[in-house]
Amino acid sequence: MPANVVYWFISVPAENKKSVVFQNLKTKLSGPTNDYAEVFQFIIPELKIGTLDGLVTISDELVKYDQAFEATNLKILDILRNLLNADKDQIRAHLVVNEKSIDQYLKTFQWNTQKYRGDKSLQEIVQALNQEVSSIDALMKAKLANYNQVKGNLQALKRTQSGNLAVRDITDVVRKEHFVLNSEYLETLLVAVPRNLYRAWYGKYEKLTPMVVPRSSIKIKEDDEYGLFTVTLFKRVVEDFVHKCREEKFIYKDFKYDEGEIENHRKQLQEIGETEKELSSTLLRLARTNFGEVFSSWIHLKALRVYVESVLRYGLPPDFMSAIIKPKPKLENKVRDILHAEYGKLGGSMGSESQKEEHMEEFHNLVDKDYYPYVWFQVHFEIGRG
Predict the structure, then answer these.
(1) Quick one: CA dihedral 166, 172, 173, 176, positive or negative?
(2) Calpha distance 186→183 (Å, rounded)
(3) Alpha carbon separation from 31 to 1, 36, 187, 191, 222 (Å, rounded)
(4) From CA 154, how far away is CA 272, in angstroms rounded?
């Protein structure tokens, strides 16, 4: 499947010769010397039509539902992109409809008569489709919000462990043996020292204030910009020592060693990480399943649009040939030219290219920009991010 997914859904009058009209279309577009597109049959069962006014009303409603179904499908596709790191091969593997690839599903499309029975009105079928897609949309929205919240919490925790030693959390760096603990008089501080000031630190830290324990400073960690040093001093001079550090561009780390807090932090990070993985796995499974469900509903809606528009254009009783066209890459204009040559007469004066150009400005605000002499709709989306 290419990165750019394009399928056209068309119908033209059949004149009681559906198979002949289909074969003619297929020969024009994918014959031995004309390899411009793949052409599949798009078989739509007879449906309850109702009144002409009802068809016009439902035709307008179908436009809105079509846009909504497309939006839901694209949201699910975006979830797959994010969870699969925009890996196009992985994304393709998850775009499955009824355990088939999109291409195979469309080639073998069959109307789901169990879910959308022919004795139901068009309005009832549309409402059933919309209820299914709306339910999935709400579910995916809730699952995605929950996942994003947990992922955000995990990223916030991880951000505290990124950056240089002057700004990052150092819980995972320090050890119990680095500190003088449970002393009534002494306290161990941590100071981030720029690497170009190591000599200054060693020469000055014992003299920044009185009551600093001589030779108590140990470098316990180093990165490209800073070294993390311990220093032990009497508690009564801590405030003055911190002030002197700032003057010398030594960065005091406000950290108190607490085994309980450190263990809680470690457990929190582990638990949130495990929860994020679990939610990610669940969301990926749901996205794969629900993409197929929504895509199937979307194609059934396309079938309804083709059926309704065909009746409105070609009249009663319904007698039209419907097909799916998959243009080859970069050959869409060629396919469009062939369709126009074959079926342009269906549009009357607007079907003539010269007349179309002459009247296009006049009808610009009145005619759908996607209007063609034949019934035409499409499914079009990008697998990658574009």
Answers:
(1) positive
(2) 5
(3) 21, 9, 87, 78, 70
(4) 6
pLDDT at 302: 98
Q: Which segments in the chain show pLDDT lower than 70?
A: 1-3, 348-369, 384-386
Q: Of the candidates 378, 340, 383, which has an alpha carbon nearest to the alpha carbon of residue 66?
A: 378
Strand ranges across the sheet with 251-253: 218-222, 226-234, 186-194, 251-253
Two tokens, residue 322: 């419907």
Distance CA 247, CA 234 (A): 20
- Distance between start and end Cα atoms, the chain: 15
d(CA 34, CA 27): 8
Hey, what amino acid is at 169?
Answer: D
Report the residue count for the chain.
386
The answer to whether 302 touches 324, Cβ cutoff 8 Å, is no
| Distance from chain centroid for Cα 306 | 28
At residue 176's C-alpha, the angle toward residues 172 and 182, to 5°, is: 135
Q: Which residue has the tokens 């409105």?
A: 312
Identify the pLDDT of residue 383.
Answer: 85
How large is the angle between the packed helices 259-314 and 122-159, nearest 10 degrees?
A: 150
Tokens of 296: 């199937």
Report the alpha-carbon distance of residue 310 to residue 305 in Å, rounded.
8
Three-state SS annotation for the chain: CCCEEEEEEEEEECCCCHHHHHHHHHHHHHECCEECEEEEECCCCCCECCCHHHHHHHHHHHHHHHHHHHHHHHHHHHHHHHHCCCCHHHHHHHCEECCEEHHHHHHCCCCCCCCCCCCCEHHHHHHHHHHHHHHHHHHHHHHHHHHHHHHHHHHHHHHCCCCCCCCCCCCCCCCHHHCCCCCCCEEEEEEEEEHHHHHHHHHHHHHCCCCECCCCCEEEEECCCEEEEEEEEEHHHHHHHHHHHHHCCCEEECCCCCHHHHHHHHHHHHHHHHHHHHHHHHHHHHHHHHHHHHHHHHHHHHHHHHHHHHHHHHCCCCCEEEEEEEECCCCHHHHHHHHHHHHHHHHHHHHCHHHHHHHHHHHCCCCCCCCCCCEEEEEEEECCCC
Beta carbons within 10 angstroms of residue 309's beta carbon: 19
